[in-house]
Amino acid sequence: MVNLAKKMGSFAAAVVVAFGMGSASNAMSVHTLNLAQLGTFAQDAVLTTPGVTQVGPSVPVAGGVNFTSEFAAVTGAAMAAWTTDPDLNIAVDAGDAFALNIKNQNFSPWDFEVFVDEVSIGTLPGLVPGVTGFIQSGALASGEIDKVTIKISQIIPIGTDTSADFRVTPVPATHVPVPSAAWLGMATLCGLCLVRKKNKRSQLASMY
């Protein structure tokens, strides 16, 4: 019985080591923008189609910030861009992610795209009115997030609609380490299954 326990303990430890689990350093953090950072968004004149005007960001409402991009003076393919303070300095570890929620508060579908330091992390094409879309990046490299940009685009006019109204809300930040005890418990169960399977085979063999 002692030997069995030792074998199971060795097996469990081997599984934990093999999977590289059991350390908080293996956790992935999902970063977002707080309300103060959302309040730093301003029109990006370089990326915005000439003639498009913007209103916002608003005072935080219901945990988010409202924005309006007005396209009344333009026709055809047009884009509006909002960019945060270029010195957000959000520290990230390798493997972390960034995420935001965007709700279309307009009466027409609009296309949204989010950039982190000039790199696109996701799109919400034709986001339906009244719907909140979720965008999360893939694994980021270690370093800092300096700025975030949101682009809104559409073919203007959309019927009689010429403005894009939307709300951006933070995504609850997470940092979830995989507990060593959980992996050790899973590995121990695997060990039990293997031992029981081996004993069953031995019993069947002794019958013949």
SSE topology:
Blueprint: H1 2-19, E1 28-31, H2 35-38, E2 42-43, E3 53-55, E4 65-70, E5 76-83, E6 90-92, E7 97-104, E8 110-116, E9 119-127, E10 132-136, E11 143-145, E12 148-156, E13 163-170, E14 174-176, H3 180-206
Parallel strand pairs: 1-7
Antiparallel strand pairs: 1-14, 2-5, 3-4, 4-13, 5-12, 6-11, 7-10, 7-13, 8-9, 8-12
Helix pairs in contact: 1-3
Task: Sum up the structure in keywords.
208 residues; alpha+beta; 2 domains; single chain; globular; 14 strands; seven-stranded mixed sheet; Jelly Rolls; five-stranded antiparallel sheet
User: CATH homologous superfamily of the largest domain, by name?
Assistant: Galactose-binding domain-like
Nearest-angstrom radius of gyration?
A: 26 Å
Instruction: State the major sheet.
Output: 7 strands, mixed
Q: What is the helix tally?
A: 3
What spatial form do the alpha-carbon principal axes imply? globular
User: Which percent bin holds the helix content?
Assistant: 10-25%
What is the total domain count?
2
Q: Any idea of the CATH class of the largest domain?
A: Mainly Beta
Q: Architecture of the largest domain, CATH level 2? A: Sandwich
**How many β-strands, per DSSP?**
14
Residue share in β-strands: 35-45%
Write down the overall mean pLDDT: 78
Q: Based on helices, strands and strand pairing, what is the structural class? A: alpha+beta
Low-pLDDT runs: 2-25, 176-201
* CATH topology label of the largest domain: Jelly Rolls
- Amino-to-carboxy terminus distance: 26 Å
Order of helices and strands: HEHEEEEEEEEEEEEEH
